[in-house]
Amino acid sequence: MSVGKSGQETGASMVSPRRRPPSLVVGIGASAGGLAAFKTFFDNMPADTGMAFVLVQHLDPDHKSLLVELLRPHSAMPVVEAQDHDPLAPNQVYVIPPNATLSLEGDVLRVATPSPAREYRRPIDTFFASLAESQEDCAVGIILSGVGSDGSLGIKAIKEHGGFTLAQAEFDDTAMTGMPSSAAATGLVDRVASVESLPTKLLEHQAYLTKVEEQKGADGAREDVRGSLSAITAVLRRRLKHDFSGYKQNTLIRRIQRRMQVLQIESVTAYAEHLRKEPSEGDALFRELLIGVTQFFRDEDAFDSLKANFLPSLFTGRDADDPIRVWVAGCATGEEAYSIAIMLQELLGSHQHEAAVTIFATDIDPQAVAFARAARFRRIDGLSQERLQRWFVKDGDDYVPTHVIREMCVFSEHNLVRDPPFSRIDLITCRNVLIYMENDFQHRVMQTFHYALRPGGYLFIGPSESISRETGLFSIVDKKHRILQRRDGARASLPHFVPQAGAISSPQLPANRIEDQIDKSARRVMAKHSPAYFVVDRNHNIVRFSGGETGRYLEPSEGNASLDLFANLARSLRTQVRRAVETAFSSGRAVEEENLRLEGKPPVDLVVEPIIEVGHPPSLVVVAFRTTSQTRDLPQEAEISPANRRELEAIQQEFRALQIQHRATSEELESQIENMKSVTEEFQSVNEELQSSNEELETAKEEMQSVNEELQTINSELHGKNELLLQANNDLQNLLDNTQIATIFLDDDLTVRNFTPAAREVFSLRDGDRGRPVTEITSLLSYDKLCEDVRTVQRTLGVVESQLDLEDESATYIMRIRPYRTVANVISGVVITFSNITEQKQQHDHLQVLMGELQHRTNNVFAVILAIARQTVRNSASLETFEQQFGTRLLALAQANALLVDQEWKGVSLEKLIEAQLAPFIGGDSTRLELVGPPVTMAGATIQTIGLALHELATNASKYGSLSVPGGKVVVSWSFDEGGTSPESFRLEWREQDGPPVKPSDRKGFGHFVTKQMVTRSLNAKVDVDLAPEGLRWSMQMPANEARSG
């Protein structure tokens, strides 16, 4: 079974070659309460399934739908409103627009405007039907919450084409169960589950298809099933007594694969074993094979052609004793049979025909036959409002055909291939049945139809069915609508039928429409009694006269002509006959009365005998009369004495008086009966009016229910939108309350619309100031051009920016005035923001001071470097010497600066400075350096000079002094000296020990410049140098307040 598309030419031609088609196309239908179900469904659906989803909901045609916006937060996939000619893309959700019908052509969505009559809109059925036809086994139909039955026919279509169907469970508290339960009632829903579980069921179905395709491919899977067809059909033949070996193999394979998908069985061998072991699976497969989509007047143009051009000929030259016989083969649930009955009844009424009509409707499916016989339809599709009101009666939630339509149809189970046909048929309809049969079976059935039809009879077949092999048996009289006529000269042998026990049930025939049964019963009663009889129904209407002497028992009442027995019967007989008829109907037994008197005529005997239908109460009775002379002789009149004669005359006179009184009473009773009948007719008329009003109310109720569904949907959408708006408003309010930017919103007329709490820092605003002109509110800024700048922004739509201070100069703000733009890009006032930059301004000022200080320090460093360079050049004999000396001195200067930078130019520990400058000279031997003095942090201004001085002293010691020999060392000490009346001073001393003897030198190099002149000038210090025999001693003394940091 392929997960990809199944070779649809239309889709292939419309989908761009670059666009990858979805693996499955999922149609989801819902009505009232559908929004919550949609949200929950997509909350549980991942983003990368490769499927396309199309949502069809009952929407108010006059209002914009918010469904797209409401579903986007719940879907990991993009949600868009469907547009005409949109190609389907995987991992995308399409939503039906309001006032539209949606359909699918290949992989392309088509959006159309629906018919104006709201009651005929079934958008879910419409889309599902096109989905089934275009996607076949890649179609998935899901019915979610909603009232009504929309989607049930679409579920049938999807199943017929091999698709997958699901419905929301009735136990799901979020569901309105009308639509889901109606879909489930069809018996064609593969999975019923809560809405949270439906995505999992769908993904399991997709995974099964993918796994089968990966293992064997679509062709391999079909061939596996093809190899097991004979075994599977044998099981069905043995268990169900039906032979599907003549069923088209590709259709049979597809239906078997559908059952395997539903059961998640990957191997056809395993499925065949499951079929043998589980009797219920045989029934399930049987139901799968018999899926058929039907409705009233399906393909209405074809039915109109049949009625206008061919049915009238059935009445031509036909007398009342020759009934019209119609056979609806493959009637499914009866819609087609009742459609034919309606057309024939309309012709009977319009042409005043009196021919009786019998419609034999048959199907192989006993459940479908039972449904058709029950004749209770929850959905009436394909019927005009006029026909619906005329030929159907609303009974609760169901529509029931009227008595006259129902009595025309006889339903029975029948197998076209196996069971003998009906005979003397005028019209056979067999639509969309032959397409499922192989050629041999088709030919066999067509021979059967030819045999069953009368000469010149018609055959009405489906639009996809062909008779290319049967032109010898039938001629085409309407090619477009597939109406054929029996060729009278052709001869077709009737196929041999071997009926199996219990294979076909005896139809239960309506007595008043089956003339043969009436005649048979009437003849039986006549043989026993008299040729003068009437056949009467339960409404006392005469349905047949025996002819002959019936006229002697009739005495029609004045007024409109009627076939009512008691309006035509002799008045003297009415009372006794009425009582006998009622007794026969109620008891089901014959009733006899003797010696009923007729004025001026011999007495008669009455026999009322019901016509028995097995299993049903009698609907007809035979009312027969026989004269007493036919049955017995009267006794001879005896000799009467005068006394007795006088007594007899008195008795006769009294009897005549009683007769007159009885006649008067009978006439009065008949009058009362007539009055009652009149009242009954009036009540019946009122009842019909009430019924009509009730139907109108039902229609109005349905319209109101539809509007209510839409309003509920809109209410759900608005509720969800309000939640989003409330959340957005909360977010905006929190943003306004917590932002540190003062913001004021002004209308076009400069009135305050809103403001943030921080705006109170720049204007004297209160909550009640909303709606007041900003010019009436006191500003705390040194700024009087607000109105002028606002007008400039309104005129130019630009931005005005200024730096402003509060009047007390305690804070500084950046003010920006911008146009206020709505979502629709409409200018509606201005937005003024005040950003407090007081801290930034203070930091800027401080930065300026630091920059000045940095510039000063940099200049000092450059001056030192310049001095070092000049002195080094003077004392360097070569460039290499200059480079080496200059580099080491710059390194010393850099080390001092590095220490300053580490301490953020606030001062450096003297001990660290000494260690950093001498570290290159003592080689890590801490015994060669001794530091003596208290902890002290030297001022930044002294660091560079002292560092250079220490570097030069160490360089000289490493060349000529104590650091030039292994045992030598240096002692550096420092102290603060109290000067009495003099200011406190800082003293730093360098003393070398255990070095070679120091010899005076007349040469004054860079070291002398730094240690003597530079220290003296830069640090305002006094320097002493002592060339003692034990080693060099150097010291400096400077003011303590200039030496210490801080």
Automatic annotation (TrEMBL):
Molecular-function annotations in GO: ATP binding; phosphorelay response regulator activity; protein histidine kinase activity; protein-glutamate methylesterase activity; S-adenosylmethionine-dependent methyltransferase activity
Domain spans labelled CheB-type methylesterase: 21-204
Keyword match DNA damage: no
Composition bias type Polar residues, residue spans: 1-13
Active site annotation, chain numbering: 31, 58, 150
Catalytic activity: ATP + protein L-histidine = ADP + protein N-phospho-L-histidine
Span of domain CheR-type methyltransferase: 232-475
One Pfam assignment: CheR
Region (Disordered): 1-20
E.C. code: 2.7.13.3
InterPro entries: Bact_Chemotaxis_MeTrfase, CheB_C, CheR_C, CheR_MeTrfase, CheR_N, HATPase_C_sf, PAS-like_dom_sf, SAM-dependent_MTases_sf
Keywords: ATP-binding, Chemotaxis, Coiled coil, Hydrolase, Kinase, Nucleotide-binding, Phosphoprotein, Transferase
Sections of the chain in a coiled coil: 648-738
Gene Ontology BP, a term: chemotaxis
One GO cellular component term: cytoplasm
PANTHER family: CHEMOTAXIS PROTEIN METHYLTRANSFERASE, PROTEIN-GLUTAMATE O-METHYLTRANSFERASE
Designated name of the protein: histidine kinase
